From TrEMBL:
Transmembrane segment boundaries: none
Protein name, as recorded: Glycine/betaine ABC transporter
GO MF annotation: an example: amine transmembrane transporter activity
Superkingdom assignment: Bacteria
Cellular component aspect of the GO annotation: ATP-binding cassette (ABC) transporter complex
Signal sequence interval, chain numbering: 1-19
Gene3D superfamilies: Dipeptide-binding Protein, Domain 3, Glycine betaine-binding periplasmic protein, domain 2
UniProtKB keywords: Cell membrane, Membrane, Signal, Transport
Domain ABC-type glycine betaine transport system substrate-binding: 40-181, 201-301
Subcellular location: Cell membrane
Cited Pfam families: OpuAC (PF04069)
């Protein structure tokens, strides 16, 4: 039986539950597990801290990972990328156990010593790509914007630089501008053969995931540098795909495939143009701090 999603309140109070599981009172009952004897599940109250419910990572974890690994007693906490990061920081700062749904690239791997739990069943799959998806007719309506989007391609170390700048407090637009100015050789490959526009509006849809925020603002900066008026519109994953499919948005550079957004791809197939991968080498899975004595999802049983 699939486990229900738990409200975000659970994520914000997770550390309190973890401390309670530790049985820190010296006079506690011998029947209560102490931190040293409790199983991993008992230490984290059988909860995995997740992100927004519309993410394919959440669906994959709930519908496939939990039942396939016999973790029917576990819950996945519904929230957001920001709430997950906040819960992770709080637990990490106190060296408390925590399990989160994770993906790379993400700034958390530069900020904390973390590790993916091994996935011997291969449910999370191999490396994913992030694709650029455009509305049908964009090439005819705005050929130069289409060309920039089609040629947009970078490496994990590039996007992680932008993500880290944002995490350290730099405004997303300023972080994007800084990266663009420092990487003219990369950017020039995106603008090769592009003519200057005359202020035409381009609507870029994006979800509030750290990597997509970074990539969307970089693309905004580059499109504006060649004369477009870019309107960045933050939405959830479903409306992002629907908007490109129905033409109310021009494109997104944050489509995770083939796993995370597989359902949306199938639902709207034929109603958009897939411009291919703009980032290769992503990863999905369950992530824990390196100080936790656990290495595999199978260990959660």
């Amino acid at each position: 039986m699939l486990k229900k999603l738990v409200g975000i309140t659970s994520a914000l109070t997770l550390s309190l539950g973890l401390a309670a599981c530790g049985g820190t009172e010296t006079g506690g009952s011998s029947e209560e597990p102490t931190e040293s004897t409790a199983s991993v599940g008992e230490q984290v109250d059988y909860e995995i801290v997740g992100i927004d419910p519309g993410a394919g990572l959440m669906k994959l974890t709930i519908e496939n990972v939990l039942p396939e690994y016999g973790l029917e007693d576990w819950d996945v906490v519904e929230g957001s990328g920001a709430a997950m990061a906040a819960a992770l920081k709080k637990a990490y700062d106190n060296e408390e156990p925590i399990i989160v749904t994770g993906w790379s690239p993400h700034w958390k791997f530069a900020s904390y010593d973390l590790k993916y739990l091994e996935d011997p069943k291969g449910i999370y799959g191999g490396a994913e790509d992030v694709h650029t998806i455009a509305r049908q007719g964009l090439k005819e309506d705005h050929p130069d914007a289409h060309l920039v989007l089609d040629q947009f391609n970078w490496e994990p170390q590039h996007i992680e630089t932008v993500m880290n700048l944002i995490q350290e407090g730099t405004d997303a637009a300023e972080a994007a501008a800084q990266w663009v100015s420092e990487n003219e050789d990369v950017v020039s490959t995106w603008t090769e053969g592009v003519n200057t526009a005359n202020g035409e509006e381009i609507k870029i849809l994006y979800v509030a995931w750290d990597d997509v925020i970074a990539s969307s603002h970089v693309v905004e900066n580059v499109l504006e540098s060649v004369g477009y008026d870019v309107n960045l519109i933050q939405v959830d994953a479903g409306p992002m795909w629907a908007g490109v499919a129905d033409g109310s948005g021009d494109a997104t550079v944050g489509a995770w495939l083939p796993t995370t957004h597989a359902d949306y791809y199938a639902e709207y197939d034929g109603k958009f143009e897939d411009l291919g991968s703009n980032l290769h080498g992503t990863k999905l899975g369950l992530v824990v701090p390196a100080y936790m004595d656990i290495d595999s999802i199978e260990d959660l049983k």
